[in-house]
Each structure stands twice: as C-alpha cells, then as structure tokens.
Amino acid sequence: MSLNNGQSLSVSGLDLTGNGSSSSSRTPWEDMKTSLIPTTPTRKPKPPKPENAITIAVSTRVLFNMELEQQIYEQQGLEEYIKYQVEHETEPFSPGPAFSFVKALEAVNTQLRELYPDSEELFDVVLMTNNHAYVGLRLINTINHHHLFIERFCMTGGNSPIGYLKAYHTNLYLSADAAKVREALEEGIAAATMFTPEKMKEVSETQLRVAFDGDAVLFSDESERIYKAHGLDKFFEHEKEHENKPLDHGPLKGFLEVLGKLQKKFYGKGQRLDCPIRTYLVTARSAASSGTRALKTLRSWGLEIDEALFLAGAPKGPMLEKIRPHIFFDDQMFHVEGAAEMGTVACHVPYGIAQRAAKKGRKGEETPSGLK
Fold it and tell me: Is it the case that residue 286 has pLDDT exceeding 90?
C-alpha cells in the first residue's frame, strides 16, 4: 500500500504538480490568449460572507490530482511547468482525495439554502495554494467542468498561504503538505494532512460523513501522555479518577462544533433522523475502562456525536470501511495508513505526544503506538 501526500510531492515550498512536458516556443501569455475556452456557468448561488460561513480551505493537490504536473516542475523547472499548464488549461484535472468531501459540503449547502433561504451559515470552500497565478485559468476551468461552487481563490506564487488562513476565517485547512499543516496548527487553525488511498471507496452523495479520532484530535493529548509515560494500567486508573473532569480541547474540536451547529438547524426542521450531516467518534479507547470520560467531555461541551465506536485497540480500518466517511482524522500514521488500506480518505493531525514517539520510531528507537 502506498500513500500519496504533499511530503512526497511538494518542492521548494511550491504547491505544484503535473502531467508531461512541452516543446512549445510560445510564451505562456501567448498561449493564454489563444487556448482558453470560457467555461464559466451563467448562474451560481451567492457565496456567504466569510465572517458568517464555515470556511474550508483546501490545497489544489488534495482537491485535484496534480501528480504529473509536479513531476514536470521537479524535472524540468518552473518555466516548462508554466508552459505545460497554459497549453493544457482547457483540460480539467481529475478529482483528488478531497473532491468527494467538497461535493458533500455543497450538497449540505443546497439543503440549507432550501430550509433557510436568507441564512449565510453555509460551508464556503476556499482554494488555498502557493501555485503560480498562471495556473489559475486551468483551475477555474476545472472547477467549472466539475460543477464545483468555489469562488474564493488564494494563489500566492510560491509563498506560503498560511498567513491568509485567518483572514479567510478558516475553520479547517486540508493540505498535502505536512509542513504547512503543522504551521497552521501552530497558528491555532484546525488542519490536517490528507492522503490518497490507492483505491477510494464510494461514499454517500447525499450525507456528509465525518469521522474523528478522540485523543489529540477532538481532545487534548493529556491522557495519551499518561499512557506513554506510565503504561496502560496507569492510564485506566487515571481516566477512572478523572472521569468527571472534562478533557481539554484538541485541534479539531472547533470543527466538530460547527458541524454540530449546522446539524441543529436541520433538527429544528424535524430532520434529526435524516440529517445530511453525520459524525463519528472512532477511538481505540475501551468503552468500560476509559469511554466514560470521552463521552462526558463531549456532553460538557454541549456537543453530540452521532455514533461512537470504542474499539479497545482493534484496527480502525474495517470499521471505517463500513462507515465510509468522506474524511477521517487521526493523530497517528499507523491508523491513517490502516484506514487508507481499506479505501478511506484519511488525514493525519500532527499534534500531541504521539508525534514525538513517531519520530523516535523512524530512528529505530521506538515504534509509534497508543490509544488512538
């Protein structure tokens, strides 16, 4: 099983990827004038104001498959990359791992607009990339080809786009570049590195399904630290003693919060049983030994989770294959890889004590393992 992500595709901080080379002697601007075929749709709904929306920022390399373009950049340089992109700007990119997730967000928006025509509490997808502006026309044509509703772009021409995330009021940032994800997390922005399974499972087109790990994702890594330092028995003892003390929040708590807020809008219209958003807690915690604190923490936050799966250390991949979420978040690569092997689009949240253990494991000193 192989995973494709930004760490293997990113070059010199650029979010660039591609499909071949070009021998054209024309300049990119000459090509741009002659090859563009307009594909702009005539009618689209008005995007919500950023301060009212739930903003999901995605990089081009998770929304679309741009691996071949990246090869051109790496092997032939920026000028050949630009030439190729301009010459092929009427050829749409194929979908990437975040594509189905974005389509599901748009499906939820469609239903929200029907129920609340004047509300701007909607998902707003922003294409956040350090790609060169020359690539913009091909991206626009691709978005229109796939009938995506993405009006906000941020193309920074080689500079990191992270500084713009707060300006866009970003609630979640998805990228193939682990370094950018860590930078976003350090700025207090929910973020994850998205990986591409070799073969993605089909997912629902009418219900957005989001699965979360618990410790170091929704919750802080407090309990994980006890486990790492003192072992499983001490962990169980600690959780029992503190079961009435809520865990501190983790990096993805805020995203679950906004999902819950939208769910309640559907509940208010009598759609609890057929809500188009469904959330899952998929944790390696044991229900009887350590599940109480997790559930009480969610209750203390005023958050509901639709389904909670306490696996007591069992692999997560088979359960996720059954759930078929559009996206799954975990802080340990072991579980991300296991999910991807079963066809789930999984995202790594590089947060907490488990990241130190993983680094040691790569040096042969310690293998990553834990509660997740």
Answer: no
